[in-house]
Amino acid sequence: MPARAITLYRQEQTQHQSSKHVVHHSRKSSSQEVKKKQVQATEAMAEPAYTVPAFRERAPEGMQEYQRMAAHFGRDLGHLQQELNRMKVATHEQVKNIEISREVKGMSLRKDVPVEVPKAPDFLVSLRSHTVWEKTPVKLFCTVSGQPNPIVKWYRNDVAIEPLSAPGKYKIENKYGVHSLIISRCAVIDSGVYSAVATNPQGKATSKATVCVRRPQGGGELSHLPGQVPLLSGIHPSKLEVTLLDSFGVTFGTEGESVSLVANMVVVPDLPNLPPEAMWYRDDTLLTASRWAEMSIGGGVAKLTLPHLNKDDEGLYTLRIWTKDGTTEHSAYLFVKDATPTVAGAPGAPMDVTVSDANADYVLVSWKPPNTTHEAPITGYFVDRRKSGTKDWVQCNDSPVKVCKLPVHGLTEGASYHFRVRAVNKDGISLPSRMSCGVTAAEVESDVEVIKIEGKYDIAIRQEELQGVYVTIPDPPTNVHATEINKTYIVLSWTPPSPRGRAPVCYLIEKCEGDSHIWQRVNTAVQLRSPRYPVFDMEDKKSYRFRIITINKYGSSEPSEPTAPIQKVDPYGVVLNIGVPSAPGQVIASRNTKTSAFVQWEAPKHTNNLMGYYVDASVIGSKAWFPCNHRPYKHNRFVVHGLIPGDTYVFRVQAVNAYGLSEESQESAPLFIDAALSTPSAPYGISLLNCNGSSMTLAWKRPKHTGGSKITSYYLDKREAELVAWKEVSPSPAVHRIFTVENLTSGVFYEFKVQAVNLAGVGLPSEPSKAFACVAWTMAEPGPAYDISFWEVRDSSILVQWRAPVYSGEGPITGYFVDMAKKGSSDFVTVNAEPVGHCYLKVTGLESGASYVFRVRAVNDKGVGKPSNVSDPVCAKTLPGTKEISCGVDEETGDIFLNFEACEISESSKFNWSKSYKEITESSRVSITSSGRQSKLTFVNPETEDLGIYSVAVTDTDGVSSSYSINEEELKNVLDLSYNIRHPTVPLKTELNYEILEKGHVRFWVQALKLSSSVNYRFIVNDKAITSAEGCKISHDVSTGIIQMTVENFTKASEGTYTIQIQDGKAKSQSSLVLVGDAFKAALKEAEFQRKEHIRKQGPHFSEYLSFHVTDDCTVILVCKLANVKKETTFSWFKEDDEITVDVPPNPMSGSCSLPIPMFSRKDQGIYKAVLSDDRGKDTSVYDISGKVFEDIINALASIAGSSASELVLQCTPEGIRLQCYMKYYTEEMKTSWFHRDSKISSSEKMRIGGTSEMAWMQICEPTDKEKGHYTIEIHDGEKAHSRTFDLSGQAYTDAYAEFQRLKAAAFAEKNRGRVVGGLPDVVTIMEKKSLSLTCTVWGDPSPEVTWFKNEQEVLSDDRYKITFEGGKFSSLTINSVYVEDSGKYSINVRNKYGGEFVEITVSVYKQGDEIPEPKLGQMSRPAATPKPATPAPQSAKTPTPQTPTPSIKSPTPTPPPSVKSPTPTPAPKSPTPPRSMRSPTPPRSMRSPTPTKK
What we know:
By secondary structure, the chain is mainly beta. Helices cover 10% and strands 40% of the residues. It has a five-stranded mixed β-sheet, with no helix packed on it. It has a five-stranded mixed β-sheet with strand order 11-18-17-13-14, with no helix packed on it. The radius of gyration is 58 Å and the shape is elongated.
């Protein structure tokens, strides 16, 4: 057991040595103060620094070992604890005595230091500000010189620090001239300004520093600023143990978005039906569930959702959960920035709209003003109201109010209202604020006393009911005064009269100007019932007095006592706090984290009812300010989040009240954003690189945390493995991370530890190394490589670097092997199959996001040496924002450079450039410049020896680095570009060119990429310099880079070569244009054309020449547009030089004219002209409708027709089956195709194709089964085909064929029936005693039978009536010597087996000497004649239509033309299909062409 205790004691003793201190030459003082230092050393052993916990505070492993053994063997645990403690105390005392003795002995050997000259105190190392976590210690230290030695006293906020006043809180030390103040377990209240005051007889000196304490949770924000986190409202007992895990951090949102704050926790026991009690706070306000905040807790998650962010939601959010031991809580800040305004430059929305002083007469609306950084100042505000239950907002004030509050009157009593506010500036109006909570405009009965009694009833007693005397006329009010005065209005208040009577009262307000006694009513239109009211209509710089009169139904009181004179703006200072606050005082910014800064400031001298502060920030050099908070912040210190690491910022503050924003404070000192300064963490990974038997060469790894400052040196301690005490290796610290320890004893095992030093002090010591044997190395293989580092870490590759072994073995090192394994695995894989001859290797093919470890083995001729220590794990993940090296050429100097911009830097960062991964220190071939985040390597005179890999690494970062390889091709390209820059030419965007302008002017121009204002140039034409003169204008435009020359008179003499010479500074350029031959002729022709065009446009002219347009009804319209016309201007249409007369005369004043061509066809081809003329001139537009134009018109018609085409319709005829497609318009010129079973159909006797103006058809003559199938019509419009399909098969064909047979039989019967073909008149008038012959031609197959009738009685042939029928075609009825009795209705009946026809003739006989009777209406008569009887000539058998025979000479009346009156129809043609030559459905030209006949 004692052996175990001693082992544990040794392990702890490694952490109980005195800390290293920053001194110039030695870590120990002179030997003059041996006794004093002896006491100090004793104190140092008894009271270790804050970085080392005391023995009594530790839980040693020995104690745990005893506990386990006692539990296992059943021994007495208390006895073992006492025994162990006794041994530890005894051993501790022995060690202290040994250390004190050695220290005193060492001091006695040093020489005395000579007495120094008296000197006033001076701080060699001043105090530094610190930002630390809560419950962690902080150490402030300084080094003071002076003679005699100064006495140092410590102060906090100018109050002396007394360690005894707070035992264990403060510890003051003075070791070796280093004065330190240690604050253990810091709390937020320890934040403040600490000062060290050094005093001696020669004077006094002071050093100050700021200590800022913040909580470690919440992403590092300073969450416990005084008065910011809510206090406990009470104790809520809970039996649950709650531990917060991952919690929400600082959050950024925008108005209108949704944000959730989530905290994960572990609850013991976890009962689903009994979640822990959680409370959410914003600043010091307890939040409740509402439409703006949704809360939930359960399943180990507490969540707060803000569904619609407004700036009202900005603040510090705290989650407080009651636990078994009290509460556990977490806080973080939520920032809400303005939404994008609807108008650029408009201000942000106001916030925190509240309603107070609500009564029946008015309510007071107040709000907080928004922050303005780059926006124009706010000129006022509009207040809107909305009744609850409605959606319409009504603006309350006609003009913007300048103060952040407004009394709103004119409300409906008893109604509930919501209010919102909009800010106004010169650019526009902001978005509205979040609406207020609902408020009811109702009178508050202040004179009612409510008495509570047991039960459900209360007793309400009015004040007048207690009055002993019944009052009718009320008394006047008292105590009339102004409770609020500002630049816009004042609020009057008064005490109601007492007694005032039982009748309801109201009030009248009267005012008078100054000391006059002319009183005017103020509220003439408003009946006041509340004892307060805002008054608006007051002139500036005038004072008024006010008085109040009480009125009820019985009458009015006497006026109250008038007030003192009141002014809107108080020049005498009677009313305080008018106007904006004064500017805040000094602003101090200090480091907080890598992305935040701690800003504090002095309060303004004149707060004037301060609402809070706005903090703004600006990046140095940008001159652009941005808001850090968007809601006024109450306290005078603030943590600004969301800053970019490595940038330098300045800050300013503005105070806010109801009148607006104060002037900006002075800017803070520039602050480089990085973590707060602290001592470095402990180095680690101590390794042995070489040993020769009397010395050891050691190396170690840099501390993981440098403390925000560059590590300047390292202190090494050593001890023999069997001893307890540590000895320093050397009084001088090591500058590099490799050190050779001399004067060692061969064969002894040694342990080492290292401490790092930076500007903040000496850091924690490393863990002791493992015991290294001091035995000389004699192996043939090389020793281990060391200092493995990683650069250029990307998602799939890493560059591994290392340093060569110190011990090379028995031969030079020839290469290295690199081994790799995933983190947590011991299975190493060799990356390179062959050893590499340099100390770096780029490892590729890695898995993104995976972590790897590496080791390196050196190789010489004897073999492979021992591997290096395993490296730290490295994750193959590209740093966010990483940028690569870029190669470029300076546009001004032509220098070739490599440029790199770091995504992250610290204040102590440096850019280390390397070639082939060997650092470039001094080189005549390159120069290196760095500024801020950027570093540039510039080549002095680049040549082939500069080819290679260039890399850059940024120190004191998380491996920010990059590399770039320059090859021969790229070097050649940049050298060419550099040459062009150093021997510049004016870069031309376009060469010399020309264009023809109106009036026939010719513009020659060239455009450069850029020109300066001092550019010089000249134009040369045919070796002759041209200057700007009449007829030739030369100019240039620097903004566009255009140089131009305009030639106004371009003639045949202008042919030749045009050249422009440009000189801009050192740069020159020249461009030429050869304008001869055909090129010149074309230019001259175009110039003459433009000249004529200009002349043409001086009179009436066509702005758009003739073109065609097809309407939806398939009418083709020729259209033209006119310009420069007047009333006298005439317009005419022509076709083929023949004027066209249109129904509606054209109106030139309308600006356009049109000529419609309906039912367009091939006949409408031709040359059309439109002529425009008046006294100023004449212009003609010619349009040739033929060829391509005609085809385009037909295609346009086809497009409309095809789109309107109906489905195919089946129609049966006597000749066959017809398929018809109806459309808006059809003409044979359209490209129409018919298909049967995908085979195109050509018009033939079997398949006839035709159409009319309304449809296209295809007829199948004498159909058979072969004609069954699908039929398709396609109408092509030049771009696509419009198709319609019909399936002629099955039942459709059967029905159609039956109908065809029926129609065919009916047509045959109709064709062959008996009929009168012609020859008979309708009416015959004849003189008595003349001979009458009625002759006609008949037809029928077979030959018909003919019967004549008179007055429906058959006439038989006799002596007087002679009936003939010759050849089966000609029939006649002859009456010799007619008489009046022969007048009547005669008829002929022609019939055969297919049918017949009955034709009537009216005969009228008059006596000689009587007046010839007029024929009836519709009848035809001729003068009486006595023609000779003639026999009609027979027609040819082939002619189906017989001719009308010539009347007989005896007939007194000639036969009228059969086409006019004859009822006899002509025989039907064989087919309804017209002949091929007539198949166009186009109507006659005279019916559809607007073109008139020639004159």
